[in-house]
Amino acid sequence: MSKDTIIHDRRLQTAQAEARKLERSIDRAYSKCETLHSFVQSANWKGSARDSFLSYLDIIKQYHAELKEAAPLQTQALENIDSYKNNFRHHALVRKVKRL
């Protein structure tokens, strides 16, 4: 069985706007993580607590780097839906079916 895909313009616009916000938020979080990492490395802090914290921060930094890489793909995919809808509407086969 197939299900119809319904794309509501308002919901799509909301999803696009939220994806852009998410992308900016991830960029800010990654930037703050880099700043904190640099600060801790240059700080006058010694010992295993520092090393453990830096290890934890490295994991967080890697996580945010992966999110930072994936977020624009999601945003672009959501923004492409508009052009896909228009291309579909103007496709020769669709026009042919509409004339039936």
Gyration radius from CA atoms, angstroms: 22 Å
Counted up, domains total 1
Low-confidence stretches: none
Main sheet record: none
Protein name: WXG100 family type VII secretion target
Summarize the structure.
This protein is an all-alpha fold and 100 residues long. The protein has helices at residues 9-42, 48-89, 92-98.
Description of the molecule:
There is one protein chain. By secondary structure, the chain is an all-alpha fold. It contains three helices and no strands. It has one domain. Helix 1 (9-42) packs antiparallel against helix 2 (48-89). It has helices at residues 9-42, 48-89, 92-98. The chain is rod-shaped. 1% of the residues are buried.
Task: Please write out the topology.
Layout: H1 9-42, H2 48-89, H3 92-98
Helix pairs in contact: 1-2
Protein name: WXG100 family type VII secretion target
Organism: Halalkalibacter hemicellulosilyticusJCM 9152
Primary descriptors:
100 residues; WXG100 family type VII secretion target; mainly alpha
